[in-house]
Amino acid sequence: MLEATACREGMALAIDLNLRRVKMASDCANVIRRIHKEDVLGPYGQLVREMKATEQGFDSFVYAHEERRSNGDAHNLARGLVNVMLFAVLNLNIL
C-alpha cells in the first residue's frame, strides 16, 4: 500500500512541477503489474485507478519496475525520511 501511495504522491509532484513527460519507477513489482492491468482490484485498487485517470493529463506517463539495487537513491531517501519521522515522534513523546 505504501508503494502505491508513493507513486500517487510522485504523480502529484509531477503535476505541481508542471511536468509533461514522466517516467515513474518503483522497486515494487506488484504495484507496477497492477498499474498495467486493465481491471484493478485489491487493497490499493482505488489508488491505481486514480493514477490511471490522472495520467491522461500528461503527454507521456510511463511506469517502470526497477530492482532495489538500482534504486539506491530512492531507498536511502525513504530510509532517511523514516528516521526523521521516528525522531520527531520520539521527541514529541518526551515533551
Summary?
With 95 residues, the protein is an alpha+beta fold.
Write structural notes for this entry.
- The chain is of the alpha+beta class and 95 residues long.
- Helices cover 59% and strands 13% of the residues.
- The chain is built from 4 helices and 2 strands.
- It has a two-stranded parallel sheet.
Defining traits:
95 residues, alpha+beta, two-stranded parallel ribbon, 4 helices, 2 strands, globular
Write the layout of secondary structure elements.
Elements: H1 2-16, E1 21-26, H2 29-36, H3 45-54, E2 60-65, H4 72-94
Parallel strand pairs: 1-2
Helix pairs in contact: 1-3
Taking pLDDT < 50 over at least 5 consecutive residues as the criterion, the unreliable ranges are none
How many beta strands in the DSSP annotation? 2
| Helix percentage | 55-70%
Contiguous helical run count: 4
Overall form: globular
Please report which band the strand proportion falls in: under 5%, 5-15%, 15-25%, 25-35%, 35-45% or over 45%: 5-15%
Name the strands of the widest sheet in spatial order.
Answer: 1-2
SS content category: alpha+beta
